[in-house]
Structures are given as structure tokens and as C-alpha cells.
Amino acid sequence: MGKTDLTLYFIMGSMNAEKPLSVLEDALKGGVTCFQFREKGPRALVGMEKRAFAESCQRLCRQFGVPFIVNDDVDLALEMDADGVHVGQDDAEARFAREKIGADKIVGVSVHTVEEARRAMMDGADYVGMGPVYQTSSKDDAKPVAGTTMITVVGKLFPDLPIVGIGGITAENADAVFEAGASGLSVISAIATAMDPELAARRLRKAALRSMYGRRAVR
Ligand SMILES: Cc1ncc(COP(=O)(O)OP(=O)(O)O)c(N)n1
Ligand SMILES: Cc1ncsc1CCOP(=O)(O)O
Ligand SMILES: [Mg+2]
């Protein structure tokens, strides 16, 4: 897999929005650069319904040329020929995910410490997700708010390992995440619960690009 554009990484499952497919289409129109299918929670779809919904999301991503990454489920990622899989510290080991999914696919790993980041890199991660940077209500079992300090530490120690910040990120607070050294930002609610998801994605993308390239370069 070539370098993945992690600038604006949208994550969503069917329970994150009333009309999730229309939200995803709007988000893609608004400029998200990567998508993660994360179907979990008490009322999450299972079985054939989950698969059908995942396929609809994948079709939309393909239309827009945006990578479709499956959260947690390495087998589903394989069966669907997804572009990649994202695993956390309580999921399948990154090494196993990489072995199973192959060298040409994307493997993302959630990390919270230098040691976890080092292991993720050795196990073949293409990027790491770090957070929650700010308070989040989208993950019941989220760890305590971490701020941006560890992003800076990991970014300095492993400059070739792309980092995406996650947790409570909005267009207003995104700058600090890039300042800390992240290559991208990852959001659920800032797009999924927005009145206008396309506009929300457009604003987040603009905020991200301004942080990366400067205000004068991005209007
Ligand atoms: C990009 C990104 N970063 C972190 C996570 C969190 O993964 P995990 O800790 O496994 O928690 P769940 O999302 O599985 O509840 C992520 N999904 N994506
Ligand atoms: C999946 C996940 N992992 C850490 S925080 C989080 C949820 C992010 O959602 P939001 O952008 O709505 O805070
Ligand atoms: Mg997980």
C-alpha cells in the first residue's frame, strides 16, 4: 500500500448517526481522506445486516477513492478485501493482523505509550492512533483524556511513524494535534452528529490543511 492520506480520518458505525450512509456520502463529498468502519456498541448491527451495511460503506468509499478500513475485525477486513484494518491493544495483535491481511494493506494500531508505539512499529503498523486527546462521548470504555503530550513524545522518538490524534477533536481544537506532531486527525462525532456533515468535513479538512501548510496556503 502506498502512503495513506490520514489528514482527515472519519470513523463511523450505524449507531453514530440517524442516516449513516447519507452522512458518509456527505463526509466523502466534504473531503475525508480515510474511513474506518466501526460497528460496535449495544445496538450495533450483527451478521448479514452488519455485512450489508459495511458493503454499502465500502462502495461509497470506492466511488470517492477513499481507503475503507475495518475496525477490530481482521477476518471481516479480509473477506471484504478492505484496504486495511485497525486494531487496539485489546484486539488481535498487530503482528497477527499484518501477517493475515498482507503487506499491501493498511494496518493501524491504537497506542498510548512509547512501548506500545515501538511494538506497533516493529509489528508492521502503517500508522498509530493516539488518544483520547480530548473528552469524548463516542467510546464508553475510553481511557482518561491524554492531551497531546504523548503524541509529541512518540512523534519525536519515531519520526517515520505516522500518528493520528483521536478523541473529542473539532475544527476549533485540531491545531494543537498537528502542533504536537500528528499527521492527521480522526473523528466520529464532529462529522457524524453535525447538522451538515459535508460542511463539517470541509471545515475540519481546511483546519487540518491550515495547520499543516499555513493559513496563507489554504483559503
Ligand atoms: C484511528 C483510530 N485510533 C484509535 C482507535 C481506537 O481503537 P481501540 O482502542 O481498539 O478502540 P475501539 O475503536 O475498537 O473501540 C480507533 N478505532 N481508530
Ligand atoms: C474510537 C475512539 N478511540 C479513542 S477516542 C474514540 C472516539 C472518538 O470519537 P469522537 O471524535 O466523537 O470523540
Ligand atoms: Mg478496537
Which descriptors apply to this entry?
binds 4-methyl-5-hydroxyethylthiazole phosphate, alpha/beta, 219 residues, binds ligand LCLJCK34, TIM Barrel, ThiamineP_synth_sf, single chain, 8-stranded parallel β-barrel, 40% helix
What features would you describe in this structure?
By secondary structure, the protein is of the alpha/beta class. The protein has one domain (8-213): Aldolase class I (TIM Barrel). The chain contains nine helices and eight strands. The chain has helices spanning 20-30, 47-64, 74-79, 94-101, 114-122, 149-157, 174-179, 189-192, 197-213, and strands at 8-12, 34-37, 68-71, 84-87, 106-110, 127-130, 163-166, 184-187. Strands 1-2-3-4-5-6-7-8 form an eight-stranded parallel β-barrel, surrounded by six helices. Helix 6 (149-157) links the parallel strand 6 and strand 7. Helix 1 (20-30) packs parallel to helix 2 (47-64). The longest helix has 18 residues, at 47-64. The chain is globular, with a radius of gyration of 16 Å. The model has no long low-confidence stretch (mean pLDDT 96). The structure holds ligand LCLJCK34, 4-methyl-5-hydroxyethylthiazole phosphate (TZP) and magnesium ion. Magnesium ion binds next to loops. The ligand Cc1ncc(COP(=O)(O)OP(=O)(O)O)c(N)n1 binds at residues 9, 11, 36, 38, 40, 71-72, 86, 88, 91, 108, 110, 129, 139, 164, 166, 186.
CATH homologous superfamily assignment:
Aldolase class I
Task: Quickly count the domains.
Answer: 1
Write the element-wise H/E pattern from the N-terminal end onward: EHEHEHEHEHEHEHEHH
Unreliable spans are none
Helix content: 40-55%
